[in-house]
Specification:
The protein is α+β, with helices and mostly antiparallel strands. The protein has 18 helices and 19 strands. InterPro entries: FAD-dep_OxRdtase_2_FAD-bd (IPR003953), FAD/NAD-bd_sf (IPR036188), Fum_R/Succ_DH_flav-like_C_sf (IPR037099), Fum_Rdtase/Succ_DH_flav-like_C (IPR015939), SdhA/FrdA/AprA (IPR030664), Succ_DH/Fum_Rdt_flav_su (IPR011280), Succ_DH/fumarate_Rdtase_cat_sf (IPR027477).
Length: 667
């Protein structure tokens, strides 16, 4: 076991990043023209990094499995992006954003990285406004803000319920400009299947053209992994079905440490599972918790009657409703962080108060918001003696203006009108805080290999606050990597082009072909999806919202057995040298079957509860997470040694010199 060097600069917290930028090496414009960079993934982190690096003069190649960079999963983010602008005058600041993020992550994030994130957050908004991102504005024309879970200020900038889409379009326009200039070469419908290490440095990738099946070699002086998270290890998640861990897992097997895999977020406001036919879950934005109130019936007999269809939620009197988050956490109410809200919903449903046929749903009710906004509209419009129907009508119009597309989406999926009856929600796997270990420069343990956005572990600790994913992705791509990669690439100005006819490229391509041929030649009987679903059930039942030692040990053995069965009995139709979606899925599921074991191993070793990692053996009398700061205040970074179960643990001790570490409370 080794101790990791995070390379955090010395000096006061608020001066670290400024001083670091002044001290690092630069590459002059003439030399940048001779340096190549590969970016894997074109979401907000990869797209912003590619656009900015190309703008600076580097030659950039981007790779994505989608048919266009603008179809990255970042497009699905709904609620907003955080920034410490203090437009509301409610006391926000860089420090408060930093504090909320570290506290929200249950004191398991690196202090210096989080402060840098808060420090550059305001620049992100300015950048995106300049790109034309249509953020919501107040009546006077100023950018509007709303609240999100885990904070007591309004710092979330948003574009209705389409924030990720609008930010990605801004990022894509910046990319397109560089594509047009010839500074970015965009490889769509390509999947990275291995990284190439030459003399200890990342020098290229092996990619498969998903249309023709051709295996390609691409060289560069540095590689950026910005391929998102690994939530689809659970099969059912809010991630796009194509989202996968392959790029991150392949580089992990080549020497990049994987940090905190068990830190995975369960989002509290998702449309509940409706049956075994589903292949993904749909997220309802956390922004809905601003105005929606979450409740279940107070009486078990009422919950039973609702489940059986004998009672409608609108028929239940106010005094018979349990607004359990407001009851348990009066200071934050419905805006507690995601991990807290998710566990509270599970607790109520496990106790028998769930409200759908499966008993795994709670209500998100906007009736109070309709009346509140309606009364405000009546007052501003000077309507006298307005009827309750008129007030309700005006209130619904206000809510529709703020959240209309989300309400439409819900009605299309569930076939219920959320304006007339409360939404049903239940927690689901959403975001992964774990990922490739990176230092302060966002470089992995492999020189020349960087990781950005959800693909790295760096900023969210054990739980991500809402609206911070978009912030981190764009911070990494626009304002961190362009500096820190320059520091690394300054040593490559005399290197020249990296050849692709070396033995390292030969060996990497040979390994890729060997695995693909193994899939095609397998004479199994079961589909890839069958194995993926079975893995997902193991993960959700034993490594999901709550975990215990017995279940985790069982999960590890079950995943090992499932992986062995997969390689013996998977059936992959078609060939290699053609479009073959089943072959794509097979490779991704093979990686999930290894990652799942490391995930469970990490959760078993961390004998505490913190953030999204809840061990049933370690909880307070009130059922809250019980941390063990004395023994587990560190980043767990795993080194691959041949099998996931044999991974070696390396620790990065976490020190908090600018923030008081205490038990997290939202009461």
């Amino acid at each position: 076991m080794g101790v990791l060097d995070s390379k955090v600069p010395q000096g006061p917290l608020a001066e670290k990043w400024v001083k670091h930028k002044n001290d690092i090496n630069l590459v002059n414009p003439a030399n940048k023209r001779n340096i190549d960079v590969i970016v894997v993934g074109t979401g907000l982190a990869g797209g912003s990094a590619a656009a900015t690096l190309a703008e600076l003069g580097y030659n950039v190649k981007t790779f994505c499995y989608q048919d266009s960079p603008r179809r990255a999963h970042s497009i699905a983010a709904q609620g907003g992006i955080n920034a410490a602008k203090n437009y509301q005058g409610d006391g926000d600041s860089d420090y408060r954003l930093f504090y909320d993020t570290v506290k929200g992550g249950d004191y398991r994030a690196r202090e210096a990285n989080v402060y840098r994130l808060a420090e550059v957050s305001g620049n992100i908004i300015d950048q995106c406004v300049a790109q034309g991102v249509p953020f919501a504005r107040e009546y006077g024309g100023l950018l509007d803000n709303r609240s999100f879970g885990g904070v007591l200020v309004s710092r979330t900038f948003y574009a209705k319920g389409q924030t990720g889409q609008q930010l990605l379009l801004g990022c894509y326009s910046a990319m397109n400009r560089q594509i047009n200039r010839g500074k970015i070469k965009s490889y769509t419908r390509h999947e990275m299947l291995d990284v190439v290490i030459v003399d200890g440095k990342a020098r290229g990738i092996i990619a498969r053209n998903l249309v023709t099946g051709e295996i390609e070699r691409h060289s560069a002086h540095a590689v950026v992994i910005a391929s998102g998270g690994y939530g689809n290890v659970f099969f059912l998640s809010t991630n796009a079905m194509g989202s996968n861990a392959t790029a991150a897992w392949k580089v992990h097997k080549k020497g990049a440490f994987f940090a905190n895999p068990c830190f995975t977020q369960i989002h509290p406001t998702c449309i509940p599972v409706s049956g075994d036919h589903q292949s993904k879950l749909t997220l309802m934005s956390e922004s809905l918790r601003n105005d929606g109130r979450i409740w279940v019936p107070k009486k078990l007999e009422d919950a039973q009657a609702i489940r059986e269809g004998r009672l409608k939620p609108t028929e239940l009197a106010e005094e018979d409703r349990d607004y359990y988050l407001e009851r348990r956490y009066p200071a934050f109410g419905n805006l507690v962080p995601r991990d807290v809200a998710s566990r509270a919903a599970k607790e109520r449903c496990d106790a028998g108060f769930g409200v759908n046929k499966t008993g795994e749903a709670v209500y998100l009710d906007f009736s109070s918001a309709f009346m509140r906004y309606g009364k405000e509209a009546v007052a501003t419009q000077k309507i006298e003696n307005a009827s309750e129907e008129k007030i309700l009508e005006l209130g619904k119009q206000v809510v529709e203006a703020k959240y209309g597309n989300l309400f439409q989406m819900y009605e299309k999926i569930v076939d219920e009108n959320p304006y007339e009856t409360p939404m049903k929600i239940y927690p689901a796997v959403h975001y992964t805080m774990g990922g490739l270990w990176v230092d302060y420069n966002l470089q992995t343990t492999v020189p020349g290999l960087f990781a950005a956005g959800e693909a790295n572990f760096s900023d969210h600790g054990a739980n991500r606050l809402g609206a911070s994913a978009l912030m981190q992705g764009l911070a990494d791509g626009y304002f961190v990597l362009p500096y820190t990669m320059g520091d690394y690439l300054a040593a490559d100005i005399r290197t020249g082009k990296i050849p692709t006819d070396s033995k390292e490229f030969d060996e990497a391509e040979s390994r890729v072909r060997e695995q693909l041929e193994k899939f095609i030649n397998s004479k199994g009987t079961r589909s890839v999806d069958d194995f993926h679903k079975r893995l997902g059930k193991i993960m959700w039942n034993k490594v999901g919202m709550s975990r215990n030692a017995e279940g985790l040990k069982e999960a590890i053995e079950e995943i090992k057995a499932l992986r062995e069965e997969f390689w013996k009995d998977v059936k992959v139709p078609g060939g290699i040298n053609e479009m073959n979606p089943e072959l794509e899925k097979a490779g991704r599921v093979a990686d999930f079957l290894e990652l799942g074991e490391l995930f469970a191993k990490d959760a078993l070793h961390r004998e505490e509860s913190c953030g999204g990692h809840f061990r049933e053996e370690y909880q307070t009398e009130e059922g809250e997470a019980l941390r063990d700061d004395e023994n587990f205040m560190y980043v767990a970074a795993w080194e691959f040694t041949g099998k996931p179960g044999d991974a070696i643990l390396h620790k990065e001790e976490l020190k908090y010199e600018n923030i008081e570490v205490k038990t997290r409370s939202y009461k």
